[in-house]
Specification:
Number of strands: 17
Helix content: 40-55%
Structural class: alpha/beta
Radius of gyration: 27 Å
Strand order of the largest sheet: 4-7-8-12-11
Number of domains: 3
Distance between the termini: 61 Å
CATH class of the largest domain: Alpha Beta
Shape: elongated
CATH superfamily of the largest domain: P-loop containing nucleotide triphosphate hydrolases
Strand content: 15-25%
Largest sheet: 5 strands, mixed
């Protein structure tokens, strides 16, 4: 699905951000980069040459920059001594020197336009995305329904049942792209949004002369947080060295998926996290606060995935669980499913697959060790076999001997 384009602004008012902010940003970039062609400054700021020329004329009148020459009919400019002094003053206040931001109003409009709740997903999409996992039809349909809701999902069940694998697969369902801004402007403050760790650029990027290059074509975002999550990570991140803000993870995840893995084991108490998100989950809006105390509203348009092996009743009260519309238990597997998972792992690791040997393993696990058949066991056991073969300088093979050796290494012995 092709992402709608935003026409490139042709005048400063079209950008939606204060002219003074753009002038300051241009001066900082010019100081940091040195002598530049106006066309290069245009590329740096992701604004049209007409807008850059407008900014240049003002900086020139204020004697902050001067012309050093021409190249192909385009001015080559640099900062004056007054310009350098002003740039240093500006950098002491804010060291952001990236692309020009978009307005908060335009950001909100675009997030709403490409909402995760408007994605067309059907059974073929779900089955294709989860083809690498062995899941029953009921679970696949539950996941599909949850994705269509575009709201939230609670994956719970015993450890080792594949909840994290399922959660990490969910973003692959989405086949369309979204537009992510490099930064947004709020009350003359710049908040960086685009993060190359979170946001995956698509191969296709539009003609920057026709469309607003302050936006980047990306896959729908996928943000994963585990035990490192703190309540502070849900607020604007202000860097005291660079002196500008970075968007919190839920803003970076807008129009995509936010995965809270191992929920209940974070550094933040579950009740604190849940209380922080009661309103966003219910009303699809969040409130962010600048350092000076100014609050502003942003969309909370993301598919939130909570994954835990703890008892849901011990993590959240009824009021919060009501706001999580989809609750799916991911349980241990049957013997047939265990065999299928084992066969797939053997193919991947290039180990011979022997059904009777796997039957023997299942007996050892269920009868000897009194353990359930967890989906994680096949890969873990096969890897043990591969490591043992590497140590012995042999080719890995599936046999009762190697299976039992792997079990001795993998499982905790209860013998005295």
């Amino acid at each position: 699905m092709k992402t709608p384009e935003i026409p490139a602004p042709q005048t400063v008012p079209d950008t939606g951000v204060p002219k003074s902010l753009l002038e300051d940003l241009a001066l900082k970039i010019l100081y940091v980069r040195g002598e530049l062609l106006l066309s290069t400054l245009s590329e740096e700021m992701k604004l049209s040459l007409a807008i850059i020329d407008d900014l240049f004329q003002r900086l020139r009148r204020d004697q902050f920059c001067e012309v050093k020459g021409m190249a192909g009919g385009i001015h080559r400019i640099t900062t004056t001594s007054m310009g350098k002094a002003r740039a240093l003053e500006l950098l002491s206040l804010n060291q952001y020197v990236g692309p020009a931001p978009v307005s908060l109003k335009e950001y909100v409009r675009q997030v709403r336009a490409q909402s995760v709740r408007q994605v067309d997903v059907g059974p073929p999409d779900i089955r294709q995305a989860f083809a690498h996992l062995v899941l029953n039809e009921v679970t696949l349909d539950q996941l599909g329904t949850a994705v269509v809701s575009g709201s939230s999902i609670f994956l719970y069940g015993p450890t080792g049942t594949g909840k994290t694998s399922i959660a990490e697969t969910l973003p692959k369902i989405y086949k369309d792209n979204v537009l992510i801004p490099y930064a947004i402007e709020v009350d003359s403050q710049i908040i960086a949004v685009y993060d190359n760790v979170v946001h995956e650029k698509t191969v296709y990027q539009p003609d920057s002369h026709k469309f607003d290059a302050r936006w980047i074509h990306c896959r729908r975002p996928r943000v994963i947080s585990g035990g490192e999550l703190t309540i502070e990570m849900l607020d604007l991140q202000y860097n005291p060295l660079t002196k500008f803000y970075t968007a919190p993870m839920q803003v970076k995840a807008n129009n995509g998926v936010l995965i809270i893995d191992d929920f209940g084991r974070q550094r933040v108490q579950p009740a604190d996290l849940l209380n922080r998100w009661i309103v966003p989950l219910d009303r699809q809006i969040d409130f962010i606060t600048l350092a000076g105390g100014k609050k502003f509203e942003v969309p909370f348009d993301l598919f939130v995935v909570f994954a835990t092996n703890l008892d849901p009743a011990s993590l959240a009260d009824d009021a919060f669980m009501r706001r999580i519309h989809n609750k799916i238990k991911i349980d241990n597997v049957s013997r047939e499913q265990f065999q299928e998972i084992f066969a797939r792992v053997c193919r991947t690791e290039e180990v011979n697959y022997d059904p009777p040997v796997v039957e023997h393993l299942m007996d050892v696990i269920t009868e000897g060790l009194k353990e359930p058949l967890r989906p994680c066991y096949p890969r873990d056991i096969v890897l043990q076999i591969c490591w043992g073969a590497q140590y012995e300088g042999k080719r890995p093979e599936l046999s009762k001997r190697t299976i039992e050796a792997a079990c001795r290494n993998y499982f905790i012995s209860t013998e005295a």
